[in-house]
Amino acid sequence: MRLLVLLMSLAMPLVAWFSQREAFGPSNGAISDRYPTLVVAAGYAFAIWGLIFLLDVLFGFWQLSSKRRNDGAVAGIRLPAALGFALTTLWMPVFSNQRFGLALLIIWASLACLLVCALRLSRDPRPAPGQRWFAWLPLSLHAGWLSLAAILNTAQVIVAYELLPTGNMLPWSVALLAAAALMLLALNQRMRGNLAYVAAALWALVAVYMKQSASELPGAGTAAWVALAIAAILAIQTLWLHLRARPALSVAN
């Protein structure tokens, strides 16, 4: 299982390299432009994948050591981490081939796997040496970005298959953003204010604001401010969770 985690972490940037060169079909950016929505993020935001892939590869090598064969939470997340990496890899060629329904199932399944990892690591009372930097950080960041990427992907599927009105996308786009807010706040609460998870989510939400504030689609301005409001609420919740935890730590000491 340790070797499988490493191989799957290496597969992601490799397949991404081929995907950006349109080896499997149109690039993600080209498809996104073809099916514009009110919840898509600015193009620069997707550069975060480079950091996520780098940290995931570092995690793959770190957990490979025989010293960490039975390290508590790390041993327990190898299977969901490997599955999450594999599904992230699979999503790229499937999306490029415009199999949007299948791609949507894959990205939500990948998110579920990475959330299992982030939740377990965030609540581990006795983390192994280096676990916070080499396991919690990469997997939480990955989960945080996927939490918004899955919502963005959902909106694109709706537009691609015209499941809901595309002339007036604001009502259902706001509903999607509201669902994203509930998910983010609930998970952040469970993870006691996971800074890496929140950082990735804020990066995505601000990028949605940047993209939509410059968009000419009807309702884009409103969607932009909704995304920014969610970012502000998430940041305030995280600050509150950490401030609330300080007195408990002082009493424990």
From TrEMBL:
It comes from the Bacteria. The chain crosses the membrane at residues 39-61, 73-94, 100-121, 133-158, 170-187, 194-210, 222-243. Keywords: Membrane, Transmembrane, Transmembrane helix. The keyword Transmembrane helix applies. PANTHER family: SI:CH211-161H7.5-RELATED, XK-RELATED PROTEIN. This is Tryptophan-rich sensory protein. It comes from Pseudoxanthomonas gei.
